[in-house]
Known about the structure:
By secondary structure, the chain is an all-alpha fold. The protein is built from 21 helices and 4 strands.
Amino acid sequence: MNVAQQRTNLGFIGAIVGVATIGGLLFGYDSGAVNGTQQGLKAAFALTDDGLGFTVGSLLVGCAVGAFAAGGLADAVGRKRVMLIAAFLFLIGALVQGTTASHELFVLARFAGGMAVGAASVLSPAYISEVTPAGIRGRLSSLQQIMIIIGLTAAFVVNYFLQQAAGGNSLNPVGGREAWRWMYLAQAMPAAVFVVALLLIPESPRYLVGKGRDREAEGVLARLFGADGAAGKVAEIRATFREDHRPRLGDVLGGSFLFRPIVWAGILLATFQQFVGINVIFYYGETLWKLAGVDESAALQRNIVSGAVSIGACLAAIVLIDRIGRKPLLMIGSIGMAVTLGLMTWAFSNGMLDGSGNLQLSQQWGFVAVVAANLYVIFFNFSWGPVMWVMLGEMFPNQLRGSALAVCGLAQWGANYLVVQTFPRMASGLGLTPTYALYTASAALSFFLVRAFIRETAGKELEAMED
Length: 467
């Protein structure tokens, strides 16, 4: 392939990767939009604390359902079509959440938005891995995590400025509508862009071969990597699929422990990414800092700072992921998160409760907590944040990929739901110190699990992935 052709192909690959990562942006925004809206939700729908937890958590239930359904559906109708369905759900969910006066309809819309998040979370990295060269696959797949963080940060920034426009109270109107409503409506524009952009990208060539559409797959591969080796690549991909049946959910089963070992490795990555407690900061960041004695405005500002340092950490991961590999980054992240979570636990243990039961920290320990929290976010987004999604998108053989993503996506969002739902009760009942001690132990354990059970995938073609 000549240099001009190679540049053209890389430009085309970059363009379609950019489209696929809009799903990550929406994933991040929808996940972070709830920060700053909790007061509005309580007031609008007369919610108790348990009712608020259910309303917030309905997104995560939808995520689990969407992630599980997306894997099998992507094998049946294609990666592109399922991402398009997710884009429409993002758009509808944003519009309904920002306008409805019915709590039941709000929860239904949030569930639908969650299905979109779940589907995008597993399919965007899988699609990217299936259309990119092995040598730069990790870097391009890691862009998904950057877009997730950009979406989260955008939600924090939008929430902050809307709150300021409403006089510091999200219940006050802005442009004739409560500020917290606009925090959801703001997602509609990127969702509409996602719908249109998806119409312009090709279907995954691995999916096309799996459906027996070899000629179409060859055409896509020629556009991606050049015409010279397209036919040979189709034959190589074809050899990784079973001749007796198309990909199906039952392909993940095997052995004496229900799932195949490679699927258990994926479940390990998916669940421990959540057991370290990262989404406590993202979903309940404002609440967390209020527990530490910080007012609402400053809490939202710290969420923005966390988002900014996260992007920097993801950029560092992009530089290294194809050079030193996925497994070393995971192990470095596990050590860093265990140390920084330990520091946060120590800081919270030196606080005092005020008359309202809120934790108060001295200036010294407050500084330790803030520095440790931001270092923790850096380590996560340098390692487990992007690497888990990269590996889930590439570690499974072609025959298993859709079904394995369904199982691992369900496990990931199930763990996410468990952490987010248990944090408020654990924080108020046990206290922040033992709660963060559990997250610290999970981070430490993850190091040994990765060392024992995770295989390196850097530089390997998808057709070389082993069961």
